[in-house]
Amino acid sequence: MRERGSLSAAKGALLARQHVVGAERAHPDAPAEDLGSMVGTCLHFSLFTNSPTVIVMVGLPARGKTYISKKLARYLNWIGVNTAVFNLGQYRREAVQTYKNYEFFRPDNEEAMKIRRNCASNALTDIGAYFTKEQGQVAVFDATNTTRERRGLILSFAKEKGYKVFFVESVCDDPDIIEQNIMQVKLSSPDYENCDKEEALEDFLKRIECYKMTYVPLDEEKDRHLSYIKIFNVGSRYLVNRVQDHIQSRIVYYLMNIHVTPRSIYLSRHGESDLNLLGRIGGDSGLSTRGQMYASALAAFVQSQSIRDLKVWTSHMKRTIQTAEALGVPYEQWKALNEIDAGMCEEMTYEEIQGHHPEEFALRDQDKYRYRYPKGESYEDMVHRLEPVIMELERQENVLVICHQAVMRCLLAYFLDKSADELPYLRCPLHTVLKLTPVAYGCKVESIFLNVQAVNTHREKPPNVDINRKTEDALQTVPEHV
Amino acid sequence: FYIGVFFLPHLCFTVSLYLTLSLSLGPAVCMTNCPTLIVMVGLPARGKTYISKKLTRYLNWIGVPTKEFNVGQYRRECLKIYKNFEFFRPDNEEGLKIRRQCALSALNDVRQYLCMEGGQVAVFDATNTTRERRDTITRFAEQNGFKVFFVESVCEDPDVIAENIVQVKLGSPDYIDCNTEEAVADFMKRIKCYENSYQPLDEGLDRELSYIKIMDVGRRYLVNRVLDHIQSRIVYYLMNIHITPRSIYLCRHGESDLNVRGRIGGDSGLTSRGKEYAKSLGHFIQEQNIKDLKVWTSQMKRTIQTAEALAVPYEQWKALNEIDAGVCEEMMYEEIQEHFPLEFALRDQDKYRYRYPKGESYEDLVQRLEPVIMELERQENVLVICHQAVMRCLLAYFLDKSAEELPYLKCPLHTVLKLTPVAYGCKVESIFLNVEAVNTHRDKPENVDISRPTEEALLTVPAHQ
Prior knowledge:
The complex is a heterodimer of chains A (482) and B (465).
Chain A: H1 9-26, E1 53-58, H2 65-78, E2 83-87, H3 88-95, H4 110-133, E3 138-142, H5 148-161, E4 164-171, H6 175-186, H7 197-212, E5 228-232, E6 237-241, H8 246-255, E7 265-269, H9 274-277, H10 289-305, E8 311-314, H11 318-325, E9 332-333, H12 350-356, H13 358-366, H14 379-395, E10 399-403, H15 405-416, E11 432-439, E12 442-449, H16 471-474
Chain B: E1 36-41, H1 48-61, E2 66-70, H2 71-79, H3 93-116, E3 121-125, H4 131-144, E4 147-154, H5 158-169, H6 180-195, E5 211-215, E6 220-224, H7 229-238, E7 248-252, H8 257-260, H9 272-288, E8 294-297, H10 301-308, E9 315-316, H11 333-339, H12 341-349, H13 362-378, E10 382-386, H14 388-399, E11 415-422, E12 425-432, H15 454-457
Parallel strand pairs in B: 1-3, 1-4, 2-3, 4-5, 7-10, 8-9, 8-10
Antiparallel strand pairs in B: 5-6, 7-11, 11-12
Function (chain A): Synthesis and degradation of fructose 2,6-bisphosphate.
Organism (chain A): Denticeps clupeoides (denticle herring)
Domain 6-phosphofructo-2-kinase (chain A): 46-262
């Protein structure tokens, strides 16, 4: 769960090795270089400092702290920064098995205060362990942290261990937003399992009052030495203070681009292409007859959905453009949405890859996320190139993205919080639209097959990934084709 | 928007000649159709012109046509001779009239630029310190359908202000005939004239406006109501730049085997001269005694081998890889002319936008280098070991070169360019490290017609083995 996108030394060596292999293929005459001495780090975002960072959420209950925590963690993990969320409420629920009512949170409740302080301590200890033993890079401490005293405690802890601290405070006084939050995520909390809505709402509002009494927001003057972003009213205004490094700058940029306006994102592949039918990967072929039928079906589907201000995006490749053309609406092309570059294996069938490059084929099965085709790309490269697309998707509202199998897997993994290991095996069949709608802390997915048959292009990981495996073992999971 | 994609099915590959007007930010997404007027706000010597010029340079580089309009220049054209600070006194009726006229004249030119000259962003560089002036501008923008984004620079640090005055004001045409003391004294009095009527953007009164308030040279920012993609990018950029003195060193890998054979692209290793260069580079770096130098390379052998000789940690960026020449990879120019004479000519016609079949264009390169530029802005001393086309793109960003000039910038092998930000621009020192190398620079030939004879196509190809 917390082992996401880890970039260990072993992996660096794997990349180095792939690089060598690729180079060797290109120049059989060139002397074999010993690149084992490569000191360089093979990271794209290799600018994360060595100090781990603790992101400290600040704000009254129902201000979106957990929403931001989870979303931020999902984004950071997707771009390859190991991140975990430590939700204090969960620690409290483990310590105090049954929640009675808001009285637990009264500032004069000594017993409860002791328990809550213990929970905070435990959470900080776990954060320390996450950094030192689990290769964590960022920990999000999701709690109210509304008093200067509590924040001081965290700062001392971080200073002692050499962690950087970045505060994210959410300030909101719009009663509608607060009520909306309570309805969406609080009423279904384990705390209110046996209550009816009215009771729960009433109790929760009293809980907020308990915190209000002691809430000391980050202060422009007193806290001018801290690094933080203050988010006002769900993003209409931000105050940013002392951004220390690259990761904090990225976090600020991300937080300033997300919104909570309801909308849906539609992901789909191009219609079936000629190369799809032949079982060949990559290339830039046009749509088959069935693919063209899908394009028409997609147009009908989009119309039937009556989507407000829908934006349509495609890649620069023929098959997505042809699919979009059938919609009869303006669309925009992103080079970043182009399919994964299979380098030397472009337009080959899996059988041919096995025939010409059996070792490469096996290496790919061993680590499909990080494996880079010689002269081509890896899934990891793609995540990097898709990051601006994700950022823009966050800014936008209703969007239909017509893309490719590997691309769609990367985008889907971002929205559904899938790990680097799961990502390359996500099912994204042709002629099927995935409608993603943000809800509560996650994303609702509806899968709509548009009733036009297409070839299957999904190759599962075979049981035998050894480089010395037999051809039949290698080709065991190859889907059928012409 | 894209104009069209031309497919010539009778050729054995796709002629992907894109005449896209889409901006390198990806799609022309939120350019929407609305141009944007960026309005600087702040007392004199707060870095407004510095920010305006830098922002304009960045936006143009990523493909957003941007122009700055400095009201001070309009005033100098109107007044011809600057006497002293008294011109700026708030009770100087004549002065106020002229200044107001200049502002309106500048706004007129803004309208011309955004409505009729294809401009996308205009930066209105003036103090704009009164609410009244800002309201005038907002009304003007509304009338013309422009979005407005304010950039206010607030700074009370006397050292920063003094440094600004020394760096950029003393050299101003206004103070051409003054000595340093006089100029500084006059300028300080000028600032005073503005101070009394200065109404900073207010969290309450101006909460409907879109703006970023930059405080203390970037220590703190207040960002209000970012409306669209371009404003979000501008905010991100402004939050990443700094003014700490530093230098950026740009150079190519040492001479490679393919270089010597006159072949483009590929992933070859260094020649012996290339290795010598790598060693010289190591010595050069040591001599320069650079504080906390970061070293970046691409993921191609030749840059990595060059960095290895420095024996310091370095970081590899895939984004720094050389331009992908697609079907022309590892060919000599003679071979490209022989096999793809049409492509070769098309490239000469528009080298910036031309995309090699199954490859990239310079325009694509700029897009993929944008995160590198952003990180270079955040960093301090950096040595970037890269490739010819890549270096041209980076250099064009720092030296504000146009898309036409960019693909022909001279970036010879075995030469380090040291870039040091100074005043409103960049000082460039070119240091040849005294190791001979082949020339890889091909100038634009005179004849770029698709039916030109072979000799004319190959006229400017540099010599090789």
